[in-house]
Amino acid sequence: MDYMTDLVIENGVITGYNGTAKHLVIPSGVKGIGDGAFAGNHTLESVCFPNGCEWIGEGAFRGCDRLSKAVFSETLTCIGDDAFKGCNGLTELYLPSSVREVGYSAFGDCKGLRCVSLSEGLELRGKGVFARSGGRERIKLTKRIKITDLI
To answer: What distance in Å separates the CA atoms of residue 110 and residue 83, rounded to the nearest whole number?
Structure first.
C-alpha cells in the first residue's frame, strides 16, 4: 500500500490522487470520492471501495481508460454524473443493493461494458446512464428499479 501517501484526503473525502498504482484499495474511513479525484488516470486498473464509502462524486474516475474492475461496497448509495464515463476497460458491473441513485452518464462511453447487474430499489436518474457504452450483452434487472432513461 505504498500509494497511501499519494491520496489526498480531506475530512474523509478523497479529493485527489497523485500516484501511478495499478490497483487501489481505498482506505477505511473514507466516506466519499470527490469530484474528479482520479479523473484522467491512465495507470489505474482496479479499485476496491471500503465499507463506509457512501458516495462517488461527479467525474471521479472519468477517463480512467485502463480501469477494468471496480468493487463497490455495500454502503455505497450514490454514484454521481459522469463518475466512470470513458472507463473503456470496464467489462462487467455489479451495483450492490445499497446503491439508490446513479447519475447522468455515470457509465457512459464505457466501450468494453458487456454485463451489467442492477439491484432492487435502484434509481437511475437522468438520461444516458449507459449511453454509448458496450454491447450490454447481459443486463440483469431485479424488480422495483426506477429507470428514467438507460441509454
So the answer is: 11
